[in-house]
Specification:
This protein has 4 helices and 11 strands; from the N terminus they run H-E-H-E-E-H-E-H-E-E-E-E-E-E-E. The strands form 4 sheets. It has a 4-stranded mixed sheet with strand order 3-4-6-5. Strands 9-10-11 form a 3-stranded antiparallel sheet, with no helix packed on it. Strands 1-2 form a two-stranded parallel sheet. A hairpin with a 2-residue loop joins strand 10 and strand 11. The longest helix has 13 residues.
Length: 190
């Protein structure tokens, strides 16, 4: 979370926010800024590699220029079903114009959360919105992805719910509600 720029913004939007960073100074500055702006942010000194995301407890997890390493699996467990992960980081090519630790190769970020529903992905050449501008633009990758919710049982036809195994007629076609959805199951009388 660094000095808390994104964490404080989310708290100002009404989110209950917990942020962590390895830097004690960064966490201290985030706490001070949150207090100054009168927003509540739980700021913790912790290493991402050791941070416990828990089980299904977060609606949103944000990684802003943090190397993911093997965090994707732990993030998936920590997100509630339907929860969202947001990631913004440099593309690996940015190392050609600035000193860079990590970064993602072409489409690598998409594969990090392969079981998720991708809501948005971009790979753009743009100025970063923080820190010292060493070049006019950096190659940045961004991902918004959602942890799948368990499928709801049953089907809906003409706004009416049906349990698995129930059938309906649509003209002369009989349809049955199955776990995978509606399937044709015979014919109906005229």
């Amino acid at each position: 979370m660094g000095q808390g720029r994104n964490a404080i913004y989310l708290a100002q939007q009404g989110w209950q926010v917990t942020g962590f960073d390895l830097s004690e100074i960064g966490v201290k500055l985030a706490r001070e800024q949150a207090a100054k702006l009168q927003v509540s942010v739980t700021a913790v000194v912790a290493d991402a590699a050791a941070y416990d995301f828990g089980e299904a407890q977060w609606d949103l997890i944000v990684f802003s220029y943090v190397p993911l390493g093997d965090l994707a699996e732990r993030v998936e467990r920590g997100l509630k079903p339907g929860g969202i992960v947001l990631v913004e980081n440099f593309h690996r090519d940015t190392a050609k114009v600035r000193l860079l630790y990590g970064g993602f190769g072409d489409n690598e970020l998409l594969h990090a959360f392969h079981g998720f529903r991708v809501l948005h992905y971009e790979d753009v050449l743009t100025p970063q919105d923080w820190g010292v501008q060493l070049v006019d633009a950096n190659r940045i990758v961004r991902l918004a992805a959602q942890r799948p919710k368990p499928p709801t049982p049953g089907c809906t036809w003409e706004s009416k719910p049906y349990a698995e195994g129930e059938t309906v007629c649509w003209g002369i076609i009989r349809m049955a509600c199955r776990p995978q959805g509606w399937t044709r199951s015979g014919s109906c009388p005229h």
